[in-house]
Amino acid sequence: AADQPADTAEPLPEIRNLVVIGGGVMGAEIAQLAAAKDFHVTVQEIDAAAADAARKRIEGLVKQWAKYQHADEQMLTKIRQQLHVTCDDTALSKADLVIEAVVERESVKRQVFRDVERLIGDDTLLVSNTSSLRVQRMAEVTSHPDRVAGLHFFNPVSRMELVEVVHTHDTDPRVLQRLLQFARSLGKTPVVTADSPGFIVNRVLFPYLGEAVQMTIEGYDAEFIDRPMRSFGMPMGPLELLDHVGIDIAAHVADSLSGVLPDAQAVAERLKEMSEAGELGKKSGQGFYLYKDGKMDRPV
Ligand code: NAI
């Protein structure tokens, strides 16, 4: 509770313009949701091919959203007008908030933070969606670490209610308040957490997911583990969830927890082996399960 900043009477600068760096699985979902909630969103990708892929991904999400919300053509047009994908960095100068959602590699993220900081205004917030890296490592390459924080969305963004707002030692409490406000305006429930391995959710969730991975190492079939967990009341089995998150991302999370949780290292190694073999889960068509046209087919 001490971590939860008190609401202040002083008005906070409004967030209207958003730049999302990286339009992959998470960036595309965050961008689509923010545009649907009336923010102006620019997705910045690394090159023209990646920008095209991001456009397709976002268009798919917009259509899915429209179906779910029973949206009419007018609403669809509005969302499309609110959302742009580009590979140039011109939108940064007008951004109120920049959300970094590039690949989970510290060196890449640190470079993004260095590059972005040169182009944003004084009041712009700079956050990372990282699930396993220390936000502090990105904050320390900037000259204003007080405006850097983590904003950890969960996958799929449109359905997962929680957002972890991660503060470092340097994050300004007003920055946290603006982020809490932003998360609420997306219809999410934010929680403030320290910049520690796994934050809150992955630290608690991972022993459960990791134990399922351990059981596969012992030779149990994926469905043998997942089916009873679904019947127990989980919306997805643990191995199905790992496939959904991405085995590569999960390997990074396991790795980051290896100093905190027993057995995380063995799980990280198994997940790394799978990633190196191209078994990235749903996005590559194979993980603990095989996928056909993006739908789960059968256990490997
Ligand atoms: P992804 O691999 O689907 O997307 C990454 C995107 O970043 C790609 O489209 C790539 O072209 C782009 N990119 C790479 N370098 C770039 C640069 N310098 N400038 C602009 N774009 C660049 O990865 P995903 O799964 O979306 O993960 C992104 C971040 O979100 C990671 O930090 C990950 O840990 C985090 N995250 C992922 C979750 C998941 O379930 N996949 C859940 C929560 C957080």
Automatic annotation (TrEMBL):
Domain 3-hydroxyacyl-CoA dehydrogenase NAD binding: start-end pairs: 18-195
Domain 3-hydroxyacyl-CoA dehydrogenase C-terminal: 198-291
Family: In the central section; belongs to the 3-hydroxyacyl-CoA dehydrogenase family. In the N-terminal section; belongs to the enoyl-CoA hydratase/isomerase family.
Protein name in the entry: enoyl-CoA hydratase
Organism: Roseimaritima ulvae
Source lineage: Bacteria, Pseudomonadati, Planctomycetota, Planctomycetia, Pirellulales
Residues of the full protein shown: 335 to 634 of 753
